[in-house]
Amino acid sequence: MTAERIALVTGANRGLGRNAALALAARGVRVVVTHRGDADGAEETARRVHAAGGTAAVVRLDISDVSSFGAFASELSGLLDRWGASRLDIVVNNAGVGVFGPLETVTTNDFDTVFGTNVRGTFFLIQSLVPMLAKGARVINVSSSLTRHTSPATSVYSASKAAVEALSRTLAAELGPRDIRVNSIAPGPTATDFNGGAMRDDAGMRRGLAAQTALGRVGEPEEIGDAIDTLASEGLHWMTAQRIEVSGGALL
Ligand SMILES: NC(=O)c1ccc[n+]([C@@H]2O[C@H](COP(=O)([O-])OP(=O)(O)OC[C@H]3O[C@@H](n4cnc5c(N)ncnc54)[C@H](OP(=O)(O)O)[C@@H]3O)[C@@H](O)[C@H]2O)c1
Known about the structure:
Elements: E1 6-9, H1 15-26, E2 30-35, H2 39-51, E3 56-60, H3 69-82, E4 88-93, H4 108-129, E5 133-142, H5 155-175, E6 181-187, H6 194-201, H7 203-210, H8 221-231, E7 243-246
Parallel strand pairs: 1-2, 1-4, 2-3, 4-5, 5-6, 6-7
Helix pairs in contact: 1-2, 1-8, 4-5, 6-7
NADP nicotinamide-adenine-dinucleotide phosphate (NAP) binds at residues 10-11, 13-17, 36-38, 61-64, 94-98, 117, 142, 144, 187, 189-190, 192-194, 199.
């Protein structure tokens, strides 16, 4: 049954989304790789899936453009038809943005971009996709360790991820009777392009963040990809409405 499953991963053209797509594909899951404009990055993710013997297709999706979700769902439906399937088994709401700065520097535009993408986009994408979800489907929403611990200049971003966790729990209650699980995963600082690549490229920041973790280092994107794949695994079908932090034991 595992080989038949199909996952959609948003923002899978790079970073944690790409690694989630690769980890799922390595388990035999077919992957819909979405991107908001970086078609080359998404094609590279699909190329790596194919090179490893998996199946992937690329579809454009800007999660801040809720008005496009109807057309996206139709395109997705056509793709599932071509794959001889009618339902999605896994949705990874990974695409997200951060704007970081102290209170005085944050603009209304920053606020709307972060909430429009991370919260509004995630919520309405789930709403659009629910009719296509299989019995037993998993929705995995990417949050952040910043919802549990506090760091100055992260207020809007961490509030948006707290909202993602809150809606995950409520949707778990609403969708449970339809046999759909909704969980959130909260990565700690991980070495990607995120926040200007600081967690990957800024040695001082890496040292500082590493010192705050039980494991003594920041995360690598493959480790979050593996964690997302594990959350989607069929063995975890009794788990829903949970927040799973994958942060190397940050700020315990
Ligand atoms: N890295 C970390 O330390 C860390 C920690 C905790 C949580 N997270 C979360 O993990 C997720 C992935 O982050 P990352 O580290 O992989 O960062 P990243 O390298 O900056 O990737 C962000 C991804 O989100 C996509 N995206 C942003 N806005 C979008 C939109 N409107 N529509 C569709 N896609 C959009 C980006 O697309 P483009 O390539 O087109 O920009 C990109 O694919 C985010 O939700 C982030 O908040 C990251």
